[in-house]
Amino acid sequence: MTVTDIIGIIFIIIGSLCEIPAIIGVFRYKHALMRMHPAAIGDTLGLFFVALGAILLTGWSFTSIKIVAVVAFMWLTGPVSTHMLSIMTVLTDKKDVAKRYEHININYNDGKETEDEDTED
CB-side exposure of 41: number of CA atoms within 13 Å? Predict the structure, then answer.
């Protein structure tokens, strides 16, 4: 194992550690606008470190060019999609859409009628 491999593994671990708070933040916050900040951290910082570690582990090759292209694509499309989501959230003023529809019980039974197990007679 060379020094480059060790540094690559360290970068991948750092990137993974950046993803953990992003995952927790996305599930913890209720409002969509508050969820965007931890999601952006995972997209930018976590992806950068994992990609840098993967490039160091694979060496400079065609695979490295593809990894750089993926990072560039994510960095270009991430802010645009986040901006569109924030505009949609502000314009529709839906703070927590999932809570509004908690009472709906969707049963995917291909049109067959079955008895509800939760109902008591």
Answer: 17
Chain segment 36-54, per-residue pLDDT in tens = 888 777 778 888 999 999 9
Q: By the 8 A CB rule, do 68 and 55 touch?
A: yes
Query: How many structural domains are present in the chain?
Result: 1
Q: Percent of the chain at pLDDT above 90? A: 24
Cα distance between residue 15 and residue 45, in whole Å: 7
103 belongs to a structural domain: no
Beta strands of the chain (E only): which ranges?
A: none
> Which residues constitute the domain of residue 76?
3-97
**Residues 55/64, Cβ–Cβ less than 8 Å:** yes
Taking a C-beta distance cutoff of 8 angstroms, is the pair 55, 67 a contact?
Answer: yes
What is the per-residue pLDDT across 80-92, written as a single tens digit (0 to 9) for each? 887 887 787 777 7
Phi, psi of 20 (to 5 degrees): -60, -50
Tokens 């569109």, located at residue: 84
Amino acid at 18: C
